[in-house]
Amino acid sequence: MKVYSVELKRLTYEQVVEIFTEFQSSDQNHSERIEFPKSGDVIIFWSSESSKHNDWTTDGFKWKNQGTRKALIPTSPNDPAVFKNYYQMIDRNKCINKEVIKDVYFFKDQAMPIIVHYLDKKTKANSLLEYDSGPHGNVKSKENAENYQRTLPSVLSQIKENVSKRAPHLVYKETSKKKGVRDLKQCQNLRYVNEILSSNTLIKAKWIISNFNLLTDIFLDEIDMEGLEKFFNISTWKIAKSLIDQKVKHCFCPVCSNVCLENSIECENCRFWYHFDCAKVSKYHRAGKGKSWICEKYGFVCERN
Question: Boundaries of each Zinc finger PHD-type domain copy (predicted)?
């Protein structure tokens, strides 16, 4: 991985525009994969292959997008429009670490290049981001599990194409974990997705509702949302998109804004999840003995109202 420069403060609009303006792919000062970033690293991500345009998202860590397509304020009306996505790290305990951030800059309607800037507010040095991302969410024994490494989107695309022609175990053997494939189950899931999508039939609303976990946990983990919409009619796609958005939104505790994976309870009304301690849930409900738990009854503003 090549580092363009080191900046221990967040980039200004002028700095970002200067980097974009001076960039030439022939200078070979860009990267096609991000590994072991340090605090302060400014990386220009660029690839001539469209299949690799999203590989910048795989850097060995988990991130929470805290701001999408935020426009930077230009110096003058004639200056180019630059947008920024702002991320905060998710640690091994599924908590948001606000001290470690990643800023991603890009031009409007231009896929490449992309500027990625890492900062750890706890240090003023250009030091490695030595944090554990934690295991994959589906791992049963999390204590001794290795850190989850997200598969490169370009590798997933290639696997998705291969499993439609060959057996999953052969595809897994060919690609191996060195290229980022998580396990054999991932290849099997991709084949299952391909079989559904290659049927060229519209997915019905009844199927979405009855297989909601499959739709979100497999479809979204293994394939991009782009291109999925064509398998739905307009009304069904609205249902699917709404359910997906709700799941992503509702899994964050409204009190502490961290992910609810364990020791949490769902409001039967608004469907938001709360940590036991954050909502001061009684032992009765923690043991699952209560018929229902509604956040409004315990001093919270129910999101459905």
Answer: 252-299
